[in-house]
């Protein structure tokens, strides 16, 4: 086993790995342990009682963080005509149709979110093997296949966070920056957890949300008491 460095040992001081902390205390610890030279992202991980190998236990959705994510999101939109104009007016970074298809097929993917109008999906579908593995494929379930491109671009730019359960039954996301006020981080985490709770699939059995932890990009994880996160 690799030996822990002094920085890691120092960061873990004062954090009990066996304790479940209240959300406010957990966030305070995360903020105090974030000592990198950049504004670290605060991340949440949730262990869910699901098996994503079964279609009726897949968890996927989107959460509009009330205080934004603090991240600059580059948005690409597949649209034509008036909808393309709407996307540009809303602040989309890249807008196109066949021309954008060629750019992506050429391996140039300079965006973090991809939105498409429904009529563009036959075209976008040809990019499934490129966009799918990167989690960029537009999907109506998370609002990225829509005629309301203006609203979708605005949501993406404003802090909408997509989530999808991994094979191990874990959902994770960045929900803000350590420079955020503590209350804003708390509000974002509660909003995200509420979105995940509402996305509970029909096939989920037993305890749905089993464990929650928060951390910063370079900091240690802090276990959180779920009851202090989840709203009634």
UniProtKB/TrEMBL annotation:
GO terms for biological process: regulation of translation; translation. Keywords: Repressor, Ribonucleoprotein, Ribosomal protein, RNA-binding, rRNA-binding, Translation regulation, tRNA-binding. One of its GO terms (molecular function) is rRNA binding. Pfam families: Ribosomal_L1. SUPFAM superfamilies: Ribosomal protein L1. InterPro entries: Ribosom_uL1_bac-type, Ribosomal_uL1, Ribosomal_uL1-like, Ribosomal_uL1/biogenesis, Ribosomal_uL1_3-a/b-sand, Ribosomal_uL1_CS. One of its GO terms (cellular component) is cytosolic large ribosomal subunit. Belongs to the universal ribosomal protein uL1 family. Binds directly to 23S rRNA. The L1 stalk is quite mobile in the ribosome, and is involved in E site tRNA release. Part of the 50S ribosomal subunit. This is Large ribosomal subunit protein uL1. The gene is rplA.
């Amino acid at each position: 086993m690799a030996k822990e460095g002094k920085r890691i040992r120092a960061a873990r001081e004062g954090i009990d790995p066996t304790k479940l902390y209240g959300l406010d205390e957990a966030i305070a610890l995360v903020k105090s342990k974030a000592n990198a030279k950049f504004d670290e992202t605060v991340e949440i991980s949730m262990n869910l009682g699901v098996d994503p190998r079964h279609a009726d236990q897949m968890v996927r959705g989107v959460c509009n963080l009330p205080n934004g994510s603090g991240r600059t999101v580059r948005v690409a939109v597949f649209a034509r005509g008036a909808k393309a104009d709407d996307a540009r007016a809303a602040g989309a970074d890249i807008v196109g149709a066949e021309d954008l298809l060629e750019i992506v097929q050429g391996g140039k993917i300079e965006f973090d979110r991809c939105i498409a109008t429904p009529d563009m999906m036959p075209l976008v579908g040809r990019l499934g093997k490129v966009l799918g593995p990167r989690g960029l494929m537009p999907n109506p379930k998370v609002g990225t296949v829509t005629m309301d491109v203006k609203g979708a671009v605005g949501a993406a730019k404003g802090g909408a966070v997509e989530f999808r359960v991994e094979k191990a039954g874990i959902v994770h996301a960045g929900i803000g920056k350590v420079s955020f006020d503590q209350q804003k981080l708390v509000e974002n985490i509660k909003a995200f957890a509420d979105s995940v709770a509402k996305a509970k699939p029909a096939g989920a059995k037993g305890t749905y949300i089993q464990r929650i932890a928060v951390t910063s990009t370079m900091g240690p994880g802090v276990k959180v008491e779920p009851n202090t996160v989840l709203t009634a």
